[in-house]
Specification:
Strand order of the largest sheet: 2-4-5-8-7-6
Number of helices: 14
Distance between the termini: 47 Å
Number of strands: 8
Structural class: alpha/beta
Length: 496
């Protein structure tokens, strides 16, 4: 299928149909019980049946008025024919009252055929102006009842014509109701009206068919869109469940590792406290302390996630010493780091104070700095910079860890998401999502920047080269400062 065909299938013509067509459809639908005609073809034929039974009597009345007022025909057959065609107005109401349009169509077709041949007989026979209307009989039958109706009405039309021919060739004299003077005029008017009737009901059928197909197409498109949204929601739910399952497995591991270390350290202290010297005891106690801090941070993250799910994170800004907070966090990270990372703090003098929520800022810095340390190579440099940028405070945490590809960089703030290359490093995939939520609690925005560097020189095989180095990865955070006049306006936080 060509691209244009696919586009037409998915995006049908949205232009509204002609107002008269919609009005005609609503008018015909008023007479039809849609539940009685579940087949769209039956509904369409029923609508054409209704419309034609309002069109044909009016055209017949026009012919009768011409005969009465122009041709001076005032014979009883004219009155009976007028009455017969007026009765066609009743058929749409019979359908509304519950009679099947198919049953009503058979009766209507027989009545229409009898009226045409009666008019043919009483108005000059074989040379009558009614002859063009004989062609309308099978057309109406086809539109009302399909092929069966066409066959039935064709038989009726053939029988009528044969009967008229037999009467004509047998020498029967037909009533000469229309004088020779008015025969051409009546024939032209009758032929024109019959053509209007046939083309009108055919056009009505095609128009209503187009309208029904358009509605069906729109319903199909809406159904496909709904199905697509449902599949997307289902896939998202499955992905969320899978992510939560991975998170539970990871969280279990993250809890088990420090608990095992704490248990082993405490058992050693209890069992061999008399044989251990002071340095060894202190080392074990420090291990226990570090693991307790790790558990505390993990629990804090889980509590913050629960708080974020339950409601918006409560932000209570106040005047804080931002410089002291940064120095304290840098000191804690230095003490808690088990490797020889180089931590550097660059603080401008005009960024010592700010109007922010200290607890939330500490969570932001704790997660950013711990991530920078965790994912940096041993001996790598991690820097925390605080400076003023116009009316903003810019906090930047930069590291020299492994690179990130662009598609993973776009998902770095998704909850439970972990970069594929960091599976060897412990973590729950919550840290940066918590940072994002904490930033948004300050009515701020967050942005990540990362650029991959070149591999080490002299290596050509991609599968053997060492981890790629990268430029400092930056997270831009814009936070509204409610006391901008006193403390420098918005805070702009940059970090891993």
């Amino acid at each position: 299928m060509a691209t244009s065909d696919k586009q037409r299938l998915v995006a049908p013509d949205r232009r509204p149909p002609f107002g008269g067509l919609r009005g005609l459809d609503r008018f015909a639908t008023w007479f039809i019980d849609v539940r009685a005609y579940p087949d769209p073809d039956d509904r369409l034929r029923a609508k054409v049946f209704v419309v034609s039974h309002f069109l044909s009597p009016n055209l017949a009345l026009v012919i009768a008025a011409m005969l009465y007022f122009v041709a001076d025909v005032a014979e009883p057959p004219l009155y009976w024919l007028v009455l017969g065609f007026v009765l066609f107005f009743i058929y749409p109401f019979t359908v509304k009252w519950g009679i099947s349009y198919r049953v009503a169509s058979v009766s209507s077709l027989v009545q229409f055929s009898l009226l045409v041949y009666a008019a043919l007989y009483y108005f000059n026979g074989i040379i009558s102006f009614i002859i063009p209307w004989i062609a309308a009989i099978p057309v109406v039958g086809m539109l009302f009842l399909g092929v069966r109706g066409a066959v039935l009405t064709s038989i009726l039309a053939a029988l009528g014509i044969l009967t008229m021919l037999l009467l004509h060739f047998s020498g029967h004299e037909f009533p000469q109701t229309i004088t020779t003077e008015f025969q051409p005029l009546t024939f032209i008017v009758s032929a024109s009206l019959s053509l209007i009737f046939i083309s009108g009901i055919v056009l009505c059928h095609l128009s209503l068919y187009w309208l029904s197909q358009r509605r069906l197409h729109l319903e199909l498109v809406r159904h496909r869109q709904t199905s697509a949204r449902f599949r997307a929601a289902r896939d998202a739910a499955n992905e969320a469940n899978l992510a939560k399952s991975r998170f539970l497995a990871t969280a279990s591991h993250e809890f088990r590792t420090p608990l095992t270390t704490i248990q082993a350290g405490v058992e050693l202290l209890l069992r061999y406290r008399d044989k251990l010297d002071e340095n060894q005891s202190t080392e074990y106690l420090q291990d226990v302390t570090r693991q307790v801090k790790s558990l505390t941070q993990l629990l804090d993250n889980l509590l913050l996630v629960g708080e974020e799910d339950a409601t918006d994170i409560l932000c209570q800004p106040e005047t804080i010493k931002l410089g002291d907070v940064c120095e304290d966090m840098e000191r804690q990270m230095r003490l808690g780091s088990e490797s020889d990372h180089q931590l550097e703090l660059h603080l401008q003098p005009d960024c010592r104070t700010a109007f922010l929520d200290e607890a939330i800022i500490r969570r932001i810095l704790s997660n950013l700095l711990s991530n920078a340390i965790k994912y940096s190579l041993p001996g790598g440099e991690v820097s925390l910079s605080v400076k003023r940028d116009n009316d903003n405070i810019l906090i930047e945490v930069a590291d020299q860890g492994e690179g990130l590809v662009e598609n993973e960089l776009a998902r770095i703030f998704d909850r439970y998401y972990r970069v594929s290359e960091t599976a060897r490093v412990g973590g729950t995939g919550l840290g940066l999502s918590i940072v994002k939520a904490a930033v948004e609690a300050h009515h701020g925005t967050i942005q990540v920047e990362s650029r991959l560097g070149a591999p080490a020189a002299g290596l050509s095989s991609a599968c053997r080269r060492p981890p790629l180095r990268r430029e400092p990865l930056r997270v831009h955070v814009n936070i509204i400062d409610d006391n901008a006049d006193a403390f420098g306006g918005a805070g702009d936080f940059n970090g891993f």
